[in-house]
Amino acid sequence: MSLDEDARWLEWVTKQFESIAGDGKEIDLEEFKTALKVKESFFAERFFALFDSDGSSSISLDELLEALDLLINGSETDKLRFLFQVYDVDGSGSIDPDELRTVLKSCLRESAISLPDEKLDDLTLALFESADKDNSGFITFEELKAELETFPEVMENLTISAANWLKPPNVEQRRIRHTPRYLTRAYWLNNSRKLLFLCAYASLNLTLFMMAILQNAAGGICFMIAKGCGQCLNLNCTFVMILMLRRCLTWLRATWVVRVLPLDQNILLHQIVGYAIFFFSLVHTTAHIMNFAHLSQSSGSTFRMWEYLLTTRPGIGWVQGSASVTGILLQLIIGLMVVCSSTFVRRSGHFEVFYLSHLSYVLVWALLIVHCANFWKWFVVPGVVFLLEKIVGIAVSRMGGLYIVEVNLLPSKVTHLVIKRPPFFHFKPGDYVYLNIPAIAKYEWHPFTISSAPEQQDTIWLHVRSMGQWTNRLYEFFRQPDLQAVSTKRLTTSLRNRQNQRTQISAKLSENHRFCNIKCYVDGPYGTPTRQIFTSEHAVLIGAGIGITPFASILQSIMYRYRMRKQNCPNCNYSWCENIKDNEMKLRKVDFIWINRDQKSFEWFVSLLTKLEMDQADMEPEGRFLEMHMYMTSALSKNDMKAIGLQMALDLLAKKEKRDSITGLRTRTQPGRPEWSKVFQKVAQENKGKVHVFYCGSPVLAKVIKAECEHFGFHFYKENF
């Protein structure tokens, strides 16, 4: 740092220190623990002991600055010496196996990783045996340094998150100003269909608006604006319905139309049109109110303002002068629908509010037909198609008896439902369905991605994360000790009913796994952007948390097709996969990235992923067809002094046992979050063909990944329904 930066850094540290130390001018151990916000007190105590150079059981500002200067600006040797002293608990100048085990145990707690004691022993021995080069039974500083040098990615940026609370913001590099992503060539190329469609949509609205204004020029400026917005509302109130014709859109995804129109953006376009309706209706209503105010104040007017707005006396409208009254009702309903559709309502566990308010679309269309003399001309054809879709949906969902035959309650309140698959139910990988379980809520339908493959003939899998009222009720329903309590019959119940009841009682396989026979209804399937995955050459599948569900189906289907190409030598165990492209699958490479917050979340699909790993051929002409990348965000990164020993031990044991200690997969679980620029750089260097990135998970992360995809020129698809 320069002299000016040094001065600012000193001022920052002094300010932060004084805010914690108060009048005492020194920090004791408890204050130090509070400041560090560490999960495990071991590291706080070790850091405190090393910072406290005079052994006074408190840290002064000078002692803190000296230690921080070493950790932030010191050489690699200085940092390694500090790390060695942290591990050397008894200060003997060497690290024995018990000390190393104590450190690794604390590392596990700090990274929120739970492993049995036997595995902890294995980790300790793996790291100790690798570092103890002379088999002396102790690790010296030189041996630890030599071991760390075999991990160059750690040595590049060795740091300590415990010092982050005192790092000045000026030390960090200032963000380089880039061209806004919306003005980049990559953004326009990657979003060309959507942008062209939006331009056409905006042009059509502008054309309709101008035509209506010119046709009503004699009515005054307010009347002209009201008519212009009214004509735009005719278009938008019909178009918003077309965008939700799910069966038609699913069918169109299998045609050439998908290459011309942004069918994968139908939810986004539906939202845009919804906001356009709200805007046009607001301007339309305001313009009419201003026009009524002018009419009521003009000479010779027989009606007052409130009569124009709230009565049918002025005779405005083609159905008994009801235009004003229906207009006010429409404005209130549309406003309510917009509010209840906000992200805050949908993502805060109140999906039912969004769902029930959206059912008022029937009332909106009925009022629009009464309100506007020409709306029925816009509405009749799409309305008939919409009605047919609903009739088909009801018929399909009620056709045959569907039953939930097996339930598995997974960590983080995820419910795995196994539904008996009817013979007429055909779907593609990544499709979703609407599910209704009368025992939970008789009239509620909720969308969930199918997590099983189409090739799985007997059952359908759904994985449901408890995030709202309905999903929580679902989890609690199946968590009951015995489902008999839900459907217990009275003594007067007939023998037949009691026999039917027995078929519904759960046959427990374990505490969270049971067989059952619960009635349900399924509406679907409906297509998603992931249907295009088999037309890709290099597919990157990114799932965040429960966002893995569409990719569980896709990966199973991919590996099923892959097994059809797998060849085995009859004379030995050698196997390979023929590199054949066909109309069904053009894939040459699949990268699957799964990001989870904690260790338990990996249990949702670990058995499936293990099977997929085992199915792969050992040797292939162009390398491994499927590569998995697991990330655990709660785990501290390899560069952090509080985790470096653990991550080294996990690497060493994974190489020895050929499986990851956290998940049991062959793929090593990486700590922290992916560095997307490095991930996509590696993908680009593989040159496996055109890259398509498919994502399902948090909308915040979607924006980050999409920006990186645009930078590399990759096509980005976000799972939406």
Automatic annotation (TrEMBL):
Source organism, top-level taxon: Eukaryota
Main location: membrane
SMART domains: EFh
Signal peptide: none
Topology term for the membrane: Multi-pass membrane protein
Domain EF-hand: 39-74, 75-110, 119-154
Record keywords: Calcium, FAD, Flavoprotein, Membrane, Metal-binding, NADP, Oxidoreductase, Transmembrane, Transmembrane helix
GO cellular component: NADPH oxidase complex
FAD-binding FR-type domain segment(s): 397-532
Listed Pfam families: EF-hand_7, FAD_binding_8, Ferric_reduct, NAD_binding_6
Transmembrane segments: 195-218, 224-245, 272-295, 315-339, 351-370, 376-396, 539-562
One annotated GO molecular function: superoxide-generating NAD(P)H oxidase activity
GO BP terms in the entry: defense response; superoxide anion generation
Gene3D superfamilies given in the database record: EF-hand, Nucleotide-binding domain of ferredoxin-NADP reductase (FNR) module, Translation factors
Subcellular location: Membrane
Name this polypeptide is given: NADPH oxidase 5
